[in-house]
């Protein structure tokens, strides 16, 4: 527990990992550029709670405006790997929709996952602003910043 508590603390740089996009392109969390914030959503397309969280964020006008204005990048990662369910699922326009192809997030315990979804808000340098939060907390954060 102490080892996990020391990982990904507020103000520290989030653990880096490689993700696979639907089009076959690969990327790394730390290589995401072009905005003030990165919203990291670790989930599973077969998880109802995850789908509810994704829906709340996807239907938020605040999130959509931030993504459209290139102030926010949303990285949605299926932590279960490249599954058939992930391949059939979809993400909102403008989001990076990816999977953890080699399941390193779980295997190397990069993030504390007591349950899904896991949501982190990162700044432009991938430093943690909010960790293990709910969609309504992210929406409140951005609503108060307007």
What can you see in these coordinates?
By secondary structure, this protein is an alpha/beta fold. Helices cover 29% and strands 24% of the residues. The chain has a seven-stranded mixed beta sheet with strand order 2-1-5-4-3-6-7, with helices on one face. The protein is globular and about 40 Å long. The N and C termini lie far apart (37 Å). The model has no long low-confidence stretch (mean pLDDT 95).
Secondary structure layout plus pairing:
Layout: H1 2-5, E1 18-21, E2 26-28, E3 37-43, H2 48-58, H3 61-68, E4 72-78, H4 84-88, E5 96-99, H5 104-107, E6 118-123, E7 128-131, H6 135-145
Parallel strand pairs: 3-4, 4-5
Antiparallel strand pairs: 1-2, 1-5, 3-6, 6-7
Pick out its properties.
146 residues; alpha/beta; 7-stranded mixed beta sheet; 6 helices; 7 strands
Summary of the model, kept short:
This protein is 29% helix and 24% strand. The chain is built from 6 helices and 7 strands.
